[in-house]
Amino acid sequence: MWKPSPHIRSLQNKHVLVTGGSSGIGLEVAKEAVAQGSYITLIARNPSKLKKAAEEIIQEFHCDKNRINTEVADVRDYEALSAAINESFQWRPVDVLMCNAGVGSVGYLDQISLDCIDAMVDTNLLGTLYTLKVALKFMKERSYKNPSALVLVGSLASLYPLYGGGVYTATKYALKGIAENLRLELLPYNIGVCFACPGYVETPMLTHMEDSVGDPMLAEVAQKVTFYDRSKAKNPKDVAKAILKAVKQGKFFMSSGWDGIMLSLLSAGILPADSFAEALFDMVALIPLKIFGYMMIAYVYAIIWLNHRTKTVLVKPDAEK
Question: Which stretch is the leader sequence (predicted)?
Answer without folding.
Answer: none
